[in-house]
Specification:
Layout lengths: L2 E9 L2 H15 L5 E3 L6 E11 L3 H11 L6 E11 L7 E6 L3 H16 L13 E7 L5 H9 L5 E7 L1 E10 L2 E11 L6
Antiparallel strand pairs: 1-3, 1-8, 2-6, 4-5, 4-7, 5-6, 8-9
Helix pairs in contact: 2-3
Length: 192
C-alpha cells in the first residue's frame, strides 16, 4: 500500500478566496521571490500529518471523529495580512483570522490531542490560525513586500461559517500541490 501525504484542514469560502487572490496579485507586483499558493490550494491547516500509510486511514478517521464530537459550528472572519516569523525576516505570507480564532485553536487542540492517541506527535509550537498565501524563497524584495503588506493590515476579506473539518490528501505535482478531500467530519456539537 502506498503512503498518502495528508493533513487536516478547514476549507475556505470561495468569496474569501477570490478576495485573497486579488491581494496576492497586488503583492506579486513588488517582485519579491515568493512561491504563491494557488487559489484552489488555500485552506486553514489544523494539523499536517505527512506521509501516512493508507492502512492507517481508519484509525485517523476514528481519531478525527472523536476530536470533532463536541465541536460546534462557528463563524470566522479573515482580516489582515502579515508574515511569519515577522515582516523583516519573512518566510511565510499569511492572512489572519479574527473572529473564530479561539474556536479554531480549540478545534486544532482537539485534533492534535486525538491524533496523538494514534501515534502522531503533538505539535511543539502553539497553533496560530492563518491562511498561507505564499512562501518566501529568497530575501530579495522582502522589504518592499513588507511595506505593501502593511497597507493591507486591517483589510477584511470576509466571514464564513465553519461546519466541517476535512481530512485532505496532498499530491505534489510539477505545477504545485493538488488537494483532494478524503473525508469530511461535521461539527455537530451544540453551542454553549
Amino acid at each position: 500500500m502506498a503512503d498518502i501525504r495528508s493533513f487536516v484542514a478547514v476549507e475556505i469560502d470561495e468569496a474569501i478566496i477570490t478576495r485573497l487572490s486579488t491581494v496576492q496579485q497586488h503583492l506579486r507586483g513588488v517582485g519579491a521571490q515568493v512561491s504563491w499558493v494557488r487559489p484552489e490550494g488555500m485552506h486553514l491547516t489544523l494539523k499536517f500529518l505527512g506521509n501516512v500509510p493508507e492502512h492507517r486511514l481508519p484509525e485517523i478517521t476514528h481519531a478525527l471523529e472523536t476530536a470533532v464530537l463536541s465541536a460546534s459550528p462557528f463563524r470566522l472572519s479573515v482580516i489582515g495580512v502579515g508574515g511569519f516569523p515577522n515582516l523583516s525576516r519573512m518566510r511565510v505570507v499569511w492572512a489572519g483570522i479574527a473572529q473564530g480564532a479561539e474556536a479554531l485553536c480549540a478545534l486544532a487542540a482537539a485534533v492534535d490531542q486525538q491524533l496523538a492517541t494514534v501515534g502522531f506527535p503533538r505539535e511543539e509550537r502553539p497553533f496560530s490560525p492563518h491562511i498561507t498565501l505564499g512562501r518566501v524563497k529568497a530575501p530579495e524584495g522582502v522589504h518592499r513586500l513588507a511595506e505593501l503588506l502593511r497597507t493591507h493590515e486591517g483589510e477584511s476579506f470576509g466571514e464564513m461559517p465553519v461546519t466541517h473539518v476535512r481530512l485532505m490528501r496532498s499530491d505534489l505535482l510539477p505545477t504545485g500541490a493538488r488537494y483532494t478531500m478524503l473525508r469530511s467530519f461535521p461539527l455537530l456539537g451544540t453551542a454553549a
